[in-house]
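Allow me, if you will, to draw on your knowledge of protein folds for a short while. I have a record of one protein: its chain in single-letter code and its fold written as discrete structure tokens. Could you please explain, in whatever detail you think fit, how the structure tokens follow from the sequence? The record follows directly beneath this note:
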Amino acid sequence: MKMFLALVTLLILATVGWLAFSLRNTAPEVRFATAKVEDLVDTLNTNGKVEPISWIALRAERAGRLIDVRVQKGSTVTAGAIVGAMEDLEMQAALEAAQARLAQVEGEAENVSKGGRASLRSELEGNISRLRVQIANAEVELSSTERLVARKAVALQEAERMRANILVLREQLRGLEETKKSLVSAGDRQAAAARIQEAKAAVAQAQSQLERRNLRSPIEGTVYQIDLRSGAFLNAGDLIAHIGKVDLLQVHVYVDEPELGRVSTGQSVTVTWDARPGKEWTGQVEMLPTQIVPLGSRQVGEVLVKIANPNNSLPPGANVNVAIRSQTAQRATTIPKEALRRENGVTGVLLLDNDKVIWRPVQTGLSNALRTQITRDLRPGDRVALASDLPLRTGSLVKPVLENSSK
């Protein structure tokens, strides 16, 4: 009997040993990471939209056809530079009429300055020249006659007759000269000058009215949006172009309401854009939100960030990724975020103890996208189980697989 009992006991022990060996060798593989010491930056990752700090929207002041576009996207313009021009047939016709009127009155004024109408002035000058020649010839003839009278070769009455004829000719000459002077009076010259000034004012006014068709930039900057081409018809108020200074940009950063407590002015910010992988823009938080607004299914505050934009490489209107660097923990003990678990409302980890796991409550500090600071109850070098679908609990046998400690 004793022999039988001994054999049964040995059999039971062997069975238990075999079961323990089997369980040990069939334990599930579980990934583990090692707690390490590092400087951990608390980074808030979100999204935002870029726009210039200083910008204007140039719009059509009236309806009409766009006849000229002088810039394109990316063009740099000075204040007052012409961006485009609208068609204005009425003002163009008014300018041409005013210019024609100015040419007319300037021609009339030239005639006035020269003494009147050219044909009449020419006729008078011809008659005056002929009279002067007649008078000169008559005076020569009178001189000869007077010598003959002195010799008693010619009667005195002949000389008297010739003198009377010269007086008549001189009187005719004086009359023609007076007529020539009377062709243009001082009043005529003043009136001609006044007509010129009036015509010039009309031209200037028409040019000013026509100038309104030119669409000018009120500021110096870069054209960062323009989609119009010559020939497009515009209504009053239609957008022509967006113009702004793009070497320094502002980003409207959308921060979820629960995360706003992590943000303060002056914090460093890094911006990335999916269209340019590997490129970063840096700046800092300038202003915190004054209200919470809906953004799709989110409730967010708009944090204002300023960033430098060297070479104007980030276009306004871009949707960007934003990382706000809120705090830094020096020489912190950290583990991957996926190692954290919740049991009965308590945060903790499953710690590797030989070939088993044990539950260890921990206290967390800062975190970033991948890692979390552990401020209590965990030491560097401790190995913690990473997330898995296995129903692990204290005492569970495991076959540990060590992950890269940097993960």
